[in-house]
Amino acid sequence: MTDQAHSVMNVLFLCTHNSARSVLAESIMNRVGAGRFRAFSAGSMPSGKINPHAIALLKHLNYKTDDLRSKAWDEFAKANNPEAPDLDFVFTVCDNAAGEVCPIWPGQPMTAHWGVPDPSTVTGTEAEVSLAFAEAYRQLNNRITLFCALPLQSIDRLSLQNRLNEIGQTRD
Q1: 45 part of a folded domain
Q2: pLDDT digits (tens, 9 = 90+) for 75-134
Q3: Alpha helical stretches, state H, the chain
């Protein structure tokens, strides 16, 4: 990891299509962790567009959405892009229970799986779909808030890994 006491740490959120959950997480982290963390998102098979329900929710919550885009995770791999940021943390947010294939990130960043059900697969009324997106946002916001509260300067790597894994199991 970069020198945590003196620099902003880079966080990458990965998901399959980089159209909803990972984009929500990127936006939340850039707000909640502003000044301490810089967040990015990507997908193993990016859809090329952000889900309109994700954009609508973020706009409703006063997030800037102009710079959000769906992109491949290899944009952040040094082998493919020497100018890619050095990553301190990589979190997968795809939901294994839904049968998705989550990308695996090689290298040195701390990693954890923070699976969240995919709101873009929900069918039903507009209210039901909106509720699914709001629930994904709530889960991610809770986990990111917990992560940002960790005493990163005073916790050893093994303890930090355990805490990251515990945060991924947080439901409320």
Answers
A1: yes
A2: 888 777 888 888 999 999 988 644 555 555 556 789 899 999 999 999 999 999 999 999
A3: 21-32, 52-60, 126-148, 157-168
Distance of CA 8 to the CA centre of its chain: 16
Q: Which residues contact 75 (CB under 8 A, 6 or more apart)?
A: 42, 81, 84
Task: Answer whether residue 141 is part of any domain.
Answer: yes
One-letter amino acid at 134 equals: A
Q: Could you tell me the residue range of the domain that residue 13 belongs to?
A: 9-165
- Judge whether 4 lies within some domain: no
The pLDDT of residue 74 is 86
Tell me the two tokens of residue 83: 């100018």
Q: Give me the long-range contacts of 117-126 (CB less than 8 A, separation at least 24).
A: 118/20, 118/21, 118/94, 119/20, 119/21, 119/51, 119/53, 119/54, 120/17, 120/19, 120/20, 120/51, 120/53, 120/54
Residue 113's SS3 state is: strand
Q: How many residues does the chain have?
A: 172
CATH number, position 78? 3.40.50.2300
Does residue 148 contact residue 25 with C-beta atoms inside 8 Å? no
For residue 18, tell me if it sits in a domain.
yes
As for how many domains the chain has, the answer is 1
